[in-house]
């Protein structure tokens, strides 16, 4: 006879399958930087939330509105209260993702942002990638099984039709908390077989998996990691133009998603 646990598992699976067949209604767009957020806020005509869904005092900002049939929530982590720079990186984005899912119960998460690209893997400045999977490159724990826990490899939600329809590249994304790349990081990024490198993706994936929310990653290349130019300089030089391309790509993705259910993506 089936145990109560088995019955609960079966009920949960049935609920997930049911949700996958309903058109997606609520999108959570998570971005790390204000410069990445603003083209999207303008495009979707979102307004800033005056009555915050987040704990009082945190710098996190939600913009929201209806776009076609979709309730769009764009979240960015605001600025560091002492230093005035964007709260980029895995810690900030993990907390933000957790709080946003709890408050908004989205049907799909899109983590959109900029990234470094590897020209040896075919990346060029301005390319927009839909990541096939994500992993960490700065969590080295050389003990059996803990090593795999550290790498934290997770698949993005499969979107074969989206990939076919839109002109996006695909590749693996590797995440760490540094903009530069140490030799240790480089070895892990190579082991991860990554084409693009960012500071948030795998952290968003971790929280999304905990709370069972399907997630995709759209990353636009601001700098070539295995090129000649210093990363920080190249990043700042290309940021404005590349965030405009990112905005266009995210708009195409959202237009494609509108009216569809998860299994149609
Ligand atoms: N000096 C910049 C710092 C931003 S940090 C500023 O405040 O304007 C870089 C951001 O872009 C992170 O959110 C990260 O996800 C992404 N990024 C772009 N290029 C990257 C690279 N080569 N390595 C890691 N992250 C990168």
Automatic annotation (TrEMBL):
Annotated Pfam families: PNP_UDP_1
SUPFAM superfamilies named among the record's database cross-references: Purine and uridine phosphorylases
Protein name according to UniProt: Nucleoside phosphorylase domain-containing protein
Domain Nucleoside phosphorylase: 26-254
Superkingdom per UniProt: Eukaryota
InterPro entries: MTAN, Nucleoside_phosphorylase_d, Nucleoside_phosphorylase_sf
Gene Ontology molecular function, alphabetical: methylthioadenosine nucleosidase activity
One of the GO biological process terms: L-methionine salvage from methylthioadenosine
Native source species: Rhamnella rubrinervis
């Amino acid at each position: 006879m089936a145990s109560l646990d088995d019955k609960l598992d079966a009920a949960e699976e049935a609920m997930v399958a049911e949700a996958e067949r309903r058109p997606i209604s609520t999108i959570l767009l998570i971005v790390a930087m204000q410069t990445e957020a603003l083209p999207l806020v303008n495009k979707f005509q979102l307004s800033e939330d005056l009555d915050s869904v987040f704990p009082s005092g945190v710098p996190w900002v939600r913009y929201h509105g209806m776009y076609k049939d979709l309730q769009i929530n764009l979240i960015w982590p605001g600025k560091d209260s002492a230093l005035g720079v964007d709260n980029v990186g895995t810690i900030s984005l993990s907390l933000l993702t957790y709080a946003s899912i709890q408050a908004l119960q989205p049907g799909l998460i899109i983590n959109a942002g900029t990234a470094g690209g590897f020209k040896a893997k075919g990346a060029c400045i301005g390319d927009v990638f839909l990541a096939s999977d994500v992993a960490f490159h700065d969590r080295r724990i050389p003990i059996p099984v803990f090593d795999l826990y550290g790498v934290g490899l997770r698949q993005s939600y499969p979107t074969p039709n989206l990939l076919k329809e839109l002109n996006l590249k695909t590749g693996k994304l590797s995440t760490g908390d540094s903009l530069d790349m140490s030799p240790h990081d480089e070895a892990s990024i190579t082991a991860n077989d990554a084409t693009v490198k960012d500071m948030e993706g795998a952290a968003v994936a971790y929280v999304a998996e905990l709370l069972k929310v399907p997630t995709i990653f759209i990353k636009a290349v601001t700098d070539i990691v295995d090129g000649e130019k210093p990363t920080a300089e190249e990043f700042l030089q290309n940021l404005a133009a590349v965030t405009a391309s990112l905005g266009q790509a995210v708009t195409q993705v959202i237009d494609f998603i509108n009216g569809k259910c998860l299994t149609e993506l």
